[in-house]
Design brief:
The complex is a heterodimer of chains A (325) and B (551). Chain A is mainly α and 325 residues long. Chain A is built from ten helices and no strands. The longest helix of chain A has 40 residues. Chain B has three domains: 87 residues; 126 residues, TATA-Binding Protein; 249 residues, no CATH class. The chains are: A mainly alpha (325), B alpha+beta (551). Bound molecules: protoporphyrin IX containing FE. Protoporphyrin IX containing FE sits at the interface of chains B and A.
Chain lengths: 325, 551
């Protein structure tokens, strides 16, 4: 079962890789359709986004209409294959989690490897939900599948840990409550960081920047739509994360005798919480530009990464369950 | 988006007489401090200021690491210490940031609370003259019953409604601001809870060896370490006694612990003696204190028989060295032995101590320095015997777990041999006295705590969460309906009957409002026939946007 899980992880990485390549093909061939796809989803009244305006059409294909048509069809095919591969990847990924859980006879969130594996799956599944609801954002899938390949492969190559049972401090129903919500929130924050980065690039592009990272955003969905998605994802993840931190404090009270002790993990969760609160706060502050707010969201995600990798590797604390020593 | 930031400045009176500069400055600073921008900056600072506390060792978390840090960086450490870097979370700079932030918060929410209470008690405003200027607009056939029927339909959908003649104004989504205020207010309560806990709470750590003789009662002297809040005195500690009867631990083959349970007998002041059990995730909850199980280990029972044939038994705990096999180190000191029964005098140079290493599962062959498994599969005690003046009478505090090395260096204590003992074995020392390793008894390390802020913390965090969701997912919006007088010249299918003009205004970022408005209009227009104009503001993208709103 454990070996099956490992194989499924490798297959999932492969599927995400295929998704990434197909997205890249779609992206590269995307000229002809760029006009249609990149036309920004019109923001409704009250969104308060300055950059609602305008088609920033992609460069028109110089070839004749039939050639353009064919390219468009190919691009579309690339996009469809990409989505299919992402669905397949997510299913394999889920299979890997389930088999690992069965092999370990517990929820598969006991160490860093399992944590990353579950968190990335939440991100992938969340992406499919977003795609279901807003098909026009499909091109963002290029970034997303890239992140998936990187993170899942890192998990597999660097963090891999054989299955072991839980230490007794983890053996409690609080484990399920606290860790599941943390993983869930982390997965959505991960997903939210993708449109956040895309938004920064795209809004630079829409403001006329044509230097390196901005040019990548040429065929991304409109900045306003990306910004909106960033907010929706963060607004969804933040209360979950808040709940998870509170649940952690309740558990810490039962296990260690204090709800909060500034253990490095706790400290970094606090930092993440404060920064994400700052993001939501900044977004609600009329005098703060959306770019600034979005940078805060990205900073928040970096602190989450720090908490996951940095704290497990560099610091010694009560939360030392990384399983890497 | 509520532009709280841009709260209109209070009307400034023309300064006839000399303006009070100080007052103006104060008022300006207050306005600055309570702006959302400042709150944002302070939030960011708070996050940054928390970083040193995770990078540098903290006294409150791990005092030994701080000591090690002083050894490793003898120049830097005192400087860092002076700025409070080893107690970062109670340092001046950290406190300053969060106190400013909370001042800002209170200054920000108080006026909003007042406004919101007012808004809750007042009626939705009158409809604007031109409803077609609103973001949503529609004209529909008037339902039978006119304005009253519209109002009834809105009330059924839980809008707050007011009817003014032919006009109906309705508002919904007060929950957003309510939630937002609840969220921010409970942040203040969380801080109050933390403060209560640190002022009126106390805690102590105790290492409790099994057995009647080692029972411990809750007084400050009995704790190895204790911390009382500034508003607590030793007399406030509730009196209870605990005796450890048994300790059970199960481990996996890898040595990883799987299960712990401590069984104790508790004696509370006005209760009977009762047995109780607790484990890692379920503390012992007593009246006025909770007892948490933090760790466990072995206390070897060692009997020393002196040259006059008198025996004494020690079961002093050996501290685990944090390895997986529970290798433990400790000291069994016998300062009051070799007392001549005839004279009653004690020769201070004939004190005896054994320092040793206890291995619950000793390896099959030497070196016997590391235990292989945490339970007692092959217990062995590696002892080093010392004789001489242990230096315990001098009143110099030393560790009870280690031999005072100063006495060894000064030649006042001499090593007299080493031996590996199994349970039940006896070792005869060079002077004919004997030491026996009888058995081991378990011990547990406990943390006993009282936190009077805990309940408030729990309640306020729950409210915080509820408020947060209300704030993030609530959406404030208004709709207006105006019953128009019948227009006999119109050739529309509704000619002859009157029409209703409707307008809608989302007051917060709410992409799904167009859909909601259309549905509302359709429902009120009766028989599901929306006014044709209900769709004017809609286009294909609205569908997606509407779904966004539903998230
Ligand atoms: C302890 C520090 C604070 C934290 C953690 C915090 C957190 C948050 C969060 C997470 C939100 C987003 C919820 C939402 O969008 O409705 C928010 C909104 C808001 N905060 Fe704060 N806040 C803090 C301090 C303040 C202060 C000092 C002010 C006033 C100056 C303030 C005023 C507001 C307002 C007006 C909103 C609502 C904006 C809107 O949605 O229209 N907050 N805050």
């Amino acid at each position: 079962m454990s070996a099956l899980s490992d194989q499924l992880v490798s297959l999932a990485i492969l599927a995400y890789l295929i998704a990434m390549i197909s997205h890249a093909v779609e992206y590269a061939l995307g000229n002809a359709r760029a006009r249609v796809t990149a036309a920004p989803a019109r923001e409704l009244v009250g969104a308060g986004v300055g950059a609602v305006g305008g088609g920033t059409p992609g460069v028109r294909a110089a070839t004749g209409p039939s050639a353009a048509d064919r390219t468009a069809r190919r691009a579309r095919l690339g996009g469809l294959i990409a989505v299919a591969a992402t669905v397949l990847g997510a299913l394999l990924h889920l299979g890997a989690l389930v088999t690992r859980g069965l092999a370990a006879d517990r929820m598969p969130w006991g160490n860093m490897y399992e944590f990353v594996l579950t968190g990335t799956w939440i991100g992938a599944a969340g992406w499919l939900v977003v795609l279901w609801q807003r098909p026009q954002l499909r091109r963002l899938g290029l970034f997303l599948s890239l992140v998936m390949v990187l993170l899942v492969a890192t998990a597999e190559l660097v963090l891999y840990t054989p299955i072991v049972p839980l230490v007794p401090a983890l053996n409690s129903y609080w484990f399920v409550i606290h860790v599941s919500t943390i993983v869930f929130a982390s997965g959505i924050f991960l997903l939210g960081a993708v449109p956040a980065v895309a938004f920064l690039m795209r809004s630079g592009y829409e403001r006329g920047r044509r230097s390196f990272p901005y040019t990548l955003a040429k065929r991304l969905p409109a900045a306003a739509a990306l910004e909106r998605l960033t907010f929706v994802l963060h607004a969804f993840a933040f209360p979950v994360f808040t709940f998870a931190v509170i649940a952690g404090a309740i558990w810490a009270e039962a296990a260690w005798g204090r709800p909060w002790g500034w253990d490095p993990k706790e400290t970094w969760s606090f930092i993440s919480w404060v920064i994400y609160a700052g993001y939501l706060h900044a977004r609600a502050t009329p005098s703060v530009r959306r770019n600034v707010a979005t940078w805060l969201a990205i900073a928040g995600f970096l602190t989450m990464l720090m908490n996951l990798f940095g704290v497990n590797i560099f610091f010694e604390g009560l939360h030392s369950y990384g399983g890497l020593d | 988006m509520t532009a709280v930031d841009e709260r209109p400045a209070p009307p400034v009176e023309a300064p006839r007489h000399r303006p009070n500069r100080l007052l103006a400055l104060l008022r300006n600073s207050w306005r600055q401090l309570t702006s959302m921008r400042t709150a944002l900056v302070l939030l960011f600072l708070l996050a940054v200021a928390a970083i040193p506390g995770s990078v540098l060792p903290q006294r409150g978390v791990n005092p030994e690491d701080v000591r090690d840090y002083f050894v490793a960086y003898p120049d830097l450490a005192p400087v860092l210490d002076r700025i409070g870097a080893f107690e970062a979370f109670s340092s001046v700079w950290f406190s300053a940031i969060y106190l400013l932030l909370f001042t800002s918060l209170i200054g920000c929410i108080t006026p909003r609370l007042r406004d919101h209470v007012r808004a809750l008690r007042s009626k939705p405003p009158a409809a604007p003259r031109r409803l077609d200027r609103l973001p949503q607009h529609a004209v529909l056939p008037a339902p039978e019953g006119g304005a009253a029927a519209v109002a009834a339909a809105l009330r059924r959908r839980r809008w707050r409604v007011v009817v003014r003649g032919d006009e109906v104004s309705a508002e919904k989504g007060y929950l957003k601001e309510t939630g937002n205020l609840l969220f921010h207010s409970s942040l203040v309560l969380v801080l109050v809870g933390v403060a209560l806990g640190s002022w009126y709470g106390w805690s102590g750590n105790k290492l409790l060896v099994a057995g009647e003789d080692n029972a411990f009662c809750n007084t400050r002297q009995q704790y190895a370490e204790s911390k009382l809040g500034p508003r607590v005195s030793s007399a406030d500690l509730p009196g209870f006694c605990i005796r450890l009867d048994d300790f059970e631990a199960r481990f996996l083959e890898s040595g990883q612990p799987e299960f712990y349970e401590a069984r104790v007998t508790v004696d509370e002041v006005d209760g009977e003696r009762r047995p109780a059990g607790f484990s890692v995730n379920s503390p012992l909850r007593l009246d006025g204190a909770n007892v948490y199980l933090l760790g466990h280990g072995y206390a070897p029972v060692i009997r020393y028989t002196d040259r006059f044939g008198k025996s004494q038994t020690s079961n002093f705990p050996f501290l685990t060295t944090r390895d997986i096999g529970l290798t433990s180190e400790g000291l069994a000191a016998f300062p009051d032995v070799n007392v001549d029964p005839a004279t009653g005098t004690r020769d201070p140079n004939l004190q005896v101590a054994f320092s040793g290493l206890y291995l619950p599962t000793a390896p099959a062959a030497a070196p016997f320095t590391r235990s292989e498994y945490p339970t007692e599969r092959n217990p062995a005690l590696n002892l080093v015997a010392y004789r001489g003046n242990l230096g315990m009478d001098a009143g110099i505090p030393g560790s009870v777990y280690e031999l005072d090395q100063r006495q060894v260096r000064a030649g006042k204590v001499k090593e007299v041999g080493t031996k590996l003992l199994r349970k039940g074995e006896t070792w005869k020392l060079d002077d004919g006295t004997t030491v026996e390793f009888l058995d081991t008894v378990p011990y547990v390390t406990l943390s006993v705590r009282y936190d009077p802020g805990a309940t408030l913390l729990l309640v306020s965090s729950a409210v915080l969460l509820v408020g947060l969701m209300g704030s993030l997912f609530g959406r404030r919006r208004r709709v207006f309906f105006r019953v128009l007088p019948a227009d006999p010249t119109s050739g529309s299918p509704t000619s002859g009957s009157s029409l209703v003009e409707a307008g809608g205004l989302p007051r917060t970022d709410h992409p799904g409002f167009a859909d909601e408005f259309a549905q509302l209009v359709a429902a009120i227009g009766g028989d599901g026939r929306p006014g044709e104009e209900a769709g004017v503001d809609r286009d294909g993208d609205d569908r997606a946007a509407a779904r966004e709103g539903a998230e």
